[in-house]
Amino acid sequence: MSKIVKVEFAKLKRLKDLTIEFPEKGVVALMGENGIGKSTVLHALACIYRPHQHTQVGKGM
C-alpha cells in the first residue's frame, strides 16, 4: 500500500489524501477520464514529482 498525502504545483493542489493498494499477484490498471490525475499519481509513485508529504506502508514500495 502506498499513501500519497499531498502533491502541489505552485500552490495548486493536484492530489490530496490518496491511498492505493496493490495486490501481491495480478495486474493493476489505472483508468479514468482525461485530466483526472492518472499521470500525476504515476509520477508521484515513481518519485518523478516529489510529493510534499509521502508515506509508504507495506512491502514492495
Automatic annotation (TrEMBL):
Annotated CDD domains: ABC_ATPase (cd00267)
Superkingdom of source: Bacteria
Entry-linked Pfam families: ABC_tran
Protein's UniProt keywords contain ATP-binding: yes
Chain ranges of the ABC transporter domain: 15-53
Keywords tagged on the record: ATP-binding, Nucleotide-binding
Annotated protein name in UniProt: ATP-binding cassette domain-containing protein
